[in-house]
Amino acid sequence: xxxxxxxxxxxxxxxxxxxxxxxxxxxxxxxxxxxxxxxxxxxxxxxxxxxxxxxxxxxxxxxxxxxxxxxxxxxxxxxxxxxxxxxxxxxxxxxxxxxxxxxxxxxxxxxxxxxxxxxxxxxxxxxxxxxxxxxxxxxxxxxxxxxxxxxxxxxxxxxxxxxxxxxxxxxxxxxxxxxxxxxxxxxxxxxxxxxxxxxxxxxxxxxxxxxxxxxxxxxxxxxxxxxxxxxxxxxxxxxxxxxxxxxxxxxxxxxxxxxxxxxxxxxxxxxxxxxxxxxxxxxxxxxxxxxxxxxxxxxxxxxxxxxxxxxxxxxxxxxxxxxxxxxxxxxxxxxxxxxxxxxxxxxxxxxxxxxxxxxxxxxxxxxxxxxxxxxxxxxxxxxxxxxxxxxxxxxxxxxxxxxxxxxxxxxxxxxxxxxxxxxxxxxxxxxxxxxx
RNA sequence: GACCCGUUCGUCUAACGGUUAGGACUCCAGAUUUUCAUUCUGGCAAUAGGGGUUCGAUUCCCCUACGGGUUGCCA
Length: 436
What we know:
This protein is mainly α and 436 residues long. Helices cover 46% and strands 11% of the residues. The protein contains 17 helices and eleven strands. The protein has helices spanning 17-32, 51-64, 87-99, 153-163, 179-189, 221-225, 229-237, 252-258, 273-286, 289-302, 311-316, 328-336, 344-351, 356-369, 375-388, 393-405, 413-435, and strands at 4-7, 36-39, 103-106, 109-112, 118-123, 127-132, 142-145, 168-172, 195-199, 202-203, 269-270. The strands form five sheets. It has a three-stranded antiparallel beta sheet with strand order 3-4-7. A hairpin with a 3-residue loop joins β5 and β6 (127-132). α14 crosses α15 (375-388). The structure holds one RNA strand of 75 nucleotides.
């Protein structure tokens, strides 16, 4: 029996980080075992479905690189892949239940009659779990067909998993208590049930349930915030799953190779934006300079900075210095245009150095008087100017950095001197001195 | 309330029943970088509490506490 997994979101909101991780684990498991990954849209709640939400799901999954084998835009032998188009399947299986006497009408709706017995499931993550259906107050017969003739989630979900020959259902732990219901349905339908694996939920940093509006909740926000897809995939994989080694940075392919349901945790994990940013930095470090410049381009352009000509080389200077692509514009803006802001904190640090002003003034003159301008000559001059005043080069380098860039961090000072050239360096040193 | 799942540094996590309880993020301190970042070294920091079982429990069992989930003609 071949492995077939599915991600079955309902298009009623944005693609959520929890949903993305569910999709990821289904994807990893299918790829790992050479199986198929199905994308099925559970759009049975007409009142809440939106096209916008459908698009967010598709674009979010594509951005993450979670390519599906069957479903929207791919076709497949088990379609249609929208539940709204599968009505006849549900009617047909509903008749099976009716013929078996397993449903009864209740105020126009139809309820499924549970067998009153303990139901045990073998969950691939949670282990053996038993729910006692002899306790009717806790497990009332469930409505599977509404009075308006439409079918509810439990029923359509089971019918589709059955018809689509899904072998493994990997879903959030919020579905754990639903599983015995689904098991009963499979049994009544006379079909074998798939294997189930319930993965722990993702919580906010403070431990509360992560919902739509929370920080980091919507996958669509990640690219805007400067994250790259491989980093997000890497980070959410680490939430509730362990590679069982001390490695942490993985590509999607490496995750496929290493993934196993046995290594999935049972306890919920909190989302840590700090570590997510660090993982992003690690993936940024793996990018080639040109690829990094290209990835950061939209952010730089959006900041109103020129991205033609020398931009790629300038961007590459800060590849090792940012955690998020969104930090690039402020890191290199001073190299692309002459107008830039000064970081008050950095300026204060310079002001706190009593000797800085005199050193900078001397350096401006010495730069201007240099017979020949080059990066090496300029760097050498910084040392000479400092030495002449009885200071170390290090004491002067920070003030120079602030004078030229407006802040304490950024590209290598030598790179800055070279790119700016003598004229701009002198002008900026003087302008900075006047502002002190 | 009832039912179900869970509980190792602040966070993510590792540890055939035998480890000085390991790693990572954050933070702090050093080294390297004549600057910034990277990198490296070191430091702070955990088995929720109580009972068992065992020669020995983070690990197995029970109770309590706490957290989460479910309890819909939502999915």
